[in-house]
Amino acid sequence: MGIIRKFNLLTISVAVSVGLLSLAISSRFLWKGGMEHIESLRSRIRQEREVKLKDLVDSAFSVLENANFYEDAVRSLGNMRFGEGRKNYFFVVDTDGLMYVHPERPELVGKIQMELTDSEGRKIIREIVQMAKEQGEGYYSYQWPKPGEDAPESKLTYFKYHPKWKWVLCTGAYMSDLYRLETDTEKRMVSGLVRLVMAQSILIAGILVPVVVITFLVCRRLILPIKGAVETVQASSGEIASVSEQIAASSQEVARGASRQSESLANATGALEAQLEMTQRTARLADDIRKLAGETAIAVSNAGNSFMDLKQMVAAVSDAGANASSIIRAIDTISSQTKMVALNASIEAARLGESGNGLGVVSEEIRNLALRTTAASKQTETRIGEMLKRMEDAEINLLSTEDVFSGLIGMTAKVKTLAEEIATASSLQAGGGEKIKNEMRQIEGVVEQNAASSEELAATVEEMMLQADHMRSALWQLSGVLYGGSNGAGTPLKQIREA
């Protein structure tokens, strides 16, 4: 997967995460606030209901205060109803548990109800009377069925003690009525919270989608110039590889030519040594002077031809060295361009931030390869310059040797025409032959140096080809980081050479 896709996926993930986090935080705060409001509402409703029950009991208590007889009070309290459907009522017991008023359960009236229990087994009349004696008034909760129903429900009762008649006046309200009001309020609040969360979700999506699109477009504008630079450097590395192969081939040819020159010089040296030996024999054996002179002329002619070939080879080597020097300078120029491209890639990586760390590492590797290539090319250029200097020296020596050969040819002609001067000519020829032998030894040394320089140049070019191969590999890695997988640039130089 390329860096573009990774960056886009990262942007989308961050955007979605931020959106979900914002939505979760806002929803949590909204829900918490709603629950707190519901709890506050529940507490307020309960307090209001408690106050209402107390007010109702106080109102009914005033009836007891103003009644002259039990019968009037019982009748008045039995007719007092309130609440939804006027189903709520008052009931009265005395401190002995005798029931005086209970509109919903008339069968309980006139009987002691101290043992009356609710669904939980609590003796509600006994506990209410006990609390009334101790507190005078207060609240008491128990389980009791609604009028017309069998299932018991939680009921909150307010009681108040009438000391004159020793009555306990009670009334209550079912908690289900409170819960129903709370449930309706909670449903309305939850519905409002859901609508608010949906509105926030739409708003967050409307903000995040343009952010993702803009990030994607900016990423493409940053990556496209890098892609062009990579393709340019890839093309340059291919040219470097081609030129390096040509230089390597030329270096090998120069080495082979130097080897042939060395063999020719060895042959010429051997011929000269034989000539010297023949000249010495001529001085001792005057009878064989003509034969030796003829053979000497032939040997000198062959040596002259060999020297002409050697001169041409040396000139060819000089031309090849000059061409190699120009090629090395071209390689140095390409390496400088490669360093500029690597610098641009590093700048782009810095602009990308953390997501561009991989690009920065690869661009630094490219820059290091370019620096090593530049150093190798400069070293090669220096060595080629030294080789050209030696070839110039060789050409000077060849010119000097050519003059010697010219003198030798004339000397041989004189030997043929002036047999009487054979002894003197033989002496002169012996001295000239020794000099020629020394010159040949020097030329042979120069040729061997040329061969060694050619081998060294070939090794340098091989190293330069490896550097080019490394450069292309680094470029493929950079392309892989940018776009993922192989960029299809071609087969590495190393694989081409091995093939």
CATH topology of the domain at 225-498: Helix Hairpins
Mean pLDDT: 76
Largest sheet: 5 strands, antiparallel
Question: What would you call the shape?
Answer: rod-shaped
Helix content: over 70%
- Report, as a whole number of angstroms, the end-to-end distance: 31 Å
Count helical runs.
8
Spans with pLDDT under 50 lasting ≥5 residues? 488-499
Based on helices, strands and strand pairing, what is the structural class?
alpha+beta
CATH architecture label of the domain at 225-498: Orthogonal Bundle
Order of helices and strands: HHEEHEEEHHHHH
Strand content: 5-15%
Number of E strands = 5
Q: What CATH first level of the domain at 225-498 would be assigned? A: Mainly Alpha
Radius of gyration: 60 Å
What would you say this structure looks like, in words?
This protein is α+β, with helices and mostly antiparallel strands. The chain has a domain at 225-498: Helix Hairpins (Orthogonal Bundle), CATH 1.10.287. Helix content is 78%, strand content 7%. The chain contains 8 helices and 5 strands; from the N terminus they run H-H-E-E-H-E-E-E-H-H-H-H-H. The protein has a 5-stranded antiparallel beta sheet. A hairpin with a 4-residue loop joins strand 1 and strand 2. Helix 4 (175-284) runs antiparallel to helix 5 and helix 5 (289-352) runs antiparallel to helix 6. The longest helix has 110 residues, at 175-284. The radius of gyration is 60 Å and the shape is rod-shaped. The two termini are 31 Å apart. Residues 488-499 have low confidence and may be disordered.
